[in-house]
Amino acid sequence: MAARTKLSEVGSTSGQLSDNGSIVGSSVVGPLSSRRMDDTIPFTKPGGSPFTMTHIIHVPGAINGATILDPTKIAYSFPIDRNPVGYISHLSDGSRPSNAYLMTKFMANTNPSRPYVDIPVFLGELRDIPSLVYSFGRNMLTAIANGNIRYQFGIKPMISDLVKMTQFTKEADKRFHEFTALGKGGIRRKSVVWSGAVSSKADIFMISSPNWARLGCMRTIFTSRRVSAYCVWKPDTFFRSWPKTNDELRKKAMDAVTGATIDMSTAWELMPWSWLADWFGNVGDMLAANRNIIPAYVSHSFIMEHLLTQVNYTISTPSPWAGIQVSQLPSRLIETKSRQPQSAAYDARMPVLTGRQLSILGSLAALKGGGISNGRFNPAFPKLPVPR
Question: Rounded to whole angstroms, how far apart are CA atoms 278 and 272?
Fold first, then answer.
């Protein structure tokens, strides 16, 4: 495959500043529209080839008119934002997970072998529920904290699983049709996996001299991001060798939705403190993405990202000489679309914790020194210190 770049730039504008008949400022701004495409050829299917496309629309704005105190000082459509088209780029967002993290979670959620209710894990966690009553026999703060922990990791998941169990037949039927499509050539999956937005503000001088044309602005930059994932699940050689009768596929469908297997994914979910490790990494997702109750693999996988940045200006410090008018405010619109291949991979990160996660950590802090055992929150077990 060969890389190529296509660039299209059009448009320009110009203006002048005149003082007593002499040109004291002159500017030509362009291009006003820039479109760049970086891709690879030849085009491949399914999914397509990697590419990055950026389109920038630049409106420089302008000042016009003469000052009242000295009519010889005149602005003739003088551009306000004279910076080049690529002067401003998208704002970074520290909360955006890595492509590897997002793709691994996406594969875990679309894996044909994904459980609807993981019964082995469900049964393994039932033993923690009865000790909820015990927790309220201690001091109030500890009781509330312990109750929150047990609710988040015991009662709440159990209720959710029990509700889901009423949908087993429906989910197994849906998975049967999914397996049928898989056996006919593969399953394509696409979904938005992350979105976010950031902004910034700054006071800057757009025109610093001459003094009579001096102009200060408040610049606001707003960047939004939407990340999508795409993958194609294919049957492997072992799947193709199956008799693939309807009864056999329906049995496998039921095995998949109930998690009817004991594998590394099951072991990880039952391991002490694995829930906390998954807040800062993706071991659980990686194991789930590679679960293989039904023999399938990912043949193609891509991360697509759409970034949109709007730059706006408002006048904060107008010209000290009355008469100069802002005939048009400057602005910029920057749009970038990209598609890059990405496979599942282990990843560690420092996330922005949700309110639920913070409440759990707060409860752990209240319970520090007692009531927590092996990461399972069961006071019947020997007490271990809370992990830091």
Answer: 12
Q: Could you tell me if residue 127 is inside a domain?
A: no
The reported pTM is 0.70
For residue 65, tell me if it sits in a domain. Answer: yes
**pLDDT tens by residue, 53-67:** 999 999 999 999 999
Task: Report the number of distinct structural domains present in the chain.
Answer: 1
Write out the residue range of the structural domain in which residue 249 sits: 2-116+167-352
pLDDT digits (tens, 9 = 90+) for 249-304: 777 777 776 666 655 555 545 555 444 454 455 555 655 666 677 788 888 899 99
Using alpha carbons, list the distances in angstroms from residue 100 to 3, 106, 115, 188, 344. Answer: 23, 10, 22, 19, 6
| Domain contains 129 | no
* Long-range contacts of the stretch 254-257 (C-beta < 8 A, 24+): 254/168, 254/172, 255/293, 256/112, 256/113, 256/114, 256/115, 256/116, 256/175, 256/293, 256/294, 257/115, 257/116, 257/117, 257/168, 257/171, 257/172, 257/175
